[in-house]
Amino acid sequence: MFRLLETFKVQAAVLASAAVIAGAAPALAQGYPEKPITWIVPDGAGGGLDSVVRTIAPYVARNLPNDATIVLKNLPGATQTIAVSAVHDARPDGYTIGQASVAPLTIMPHLGKTKYDGYEDFDLIANVFDAAHYMVVPGSSEFDSFEQLLDYAKAHPGEVKIGIDGVFNAQHLPLLGLEQAADVDLNEIVYQSSAETKKALLGGEIDAGIMPSHIIVAEEDSGSLRAVVDMMEVKADYLPDVPSLADLGYTPSQLFVGVIAPKGLPQDIRDTLTGAVEAALADPELDAMLARQGVLVNYNGPEEYSDRLERLDDVNRRILTDFGVLK
């Protein structure tokens, strides 16, 4: 009887130890976060993306447990790959997250410009917003429509100058796809930012430029600039009459911006971060603030966010292959 009792005690101790070990990870996560969370922003302080993240971050923190604090860290440059690489290299403990557009996740890896292989090398938290990018002409332009611009470009190969913010990014690839589909030769002029593109356009250096919707709203209202086509899949409700590439029979692209984390986050911490982003974007106060900035909020959970990246990754790979950039 004594031996049997001792056996039961040993078994109970083993089971208790196993329960403690099995419960260790959730127990640790219950105290999360215990220190400030660093949110890496692939934009300079005061830039368009930076201003959006600074608007959203306090609401995300408000929806995290334990009086969470979020600290922003600006790492601009190299088509966002500097910032995204910093997220990739961080410990997967929930204390480093980052903002990322589609270019560093679905374009730059194909070009061999990154230490990571693609979006699969990250834990995806949530998509936050989509962006409409328009081809814009000066208000005094001779082109009253995108069709007129395209017809002129076909008759005068290489003469129509189009300003873009960088090479092989989310503006450049849909433009390359358009050139191929429409069998037209456009003269792409590369600038460092949308602000520079807008300045060149207003100064008459180029015939058209591709810029995000929130950059052109004031000039569109004043008549100094005029949007002729939406290059992206999403449409801004404040420019409802501007046709999209899809409306005109061409393939639009997508530009969406989400929150990512290092690969290997504990699932409960990942769920906590995703839930905080979702709750923040559902806040009417934040929604109104983002609407005033012209931000097109579009929450996607991790699975839908991943699906969208996968589809766009395939499209971008095909465009790069068709143009001989990839073999």
TrEMBL record:
It comes from the Bacteria. Residues 1-29 form the signal peptide. It holds the Pfam family TctC. Keywords: Plasmid, Signal. Belongs to the UPF0065 (bug) family. This is Tripartite tricarboxylate transporter substrate binding protein. It comes from Falsirhodobacter algicola. The lineage of its organism: Bacteria, Pseudomonadati, Pseudomonadota, Alphaproteobacteria, Rhodobacterales.
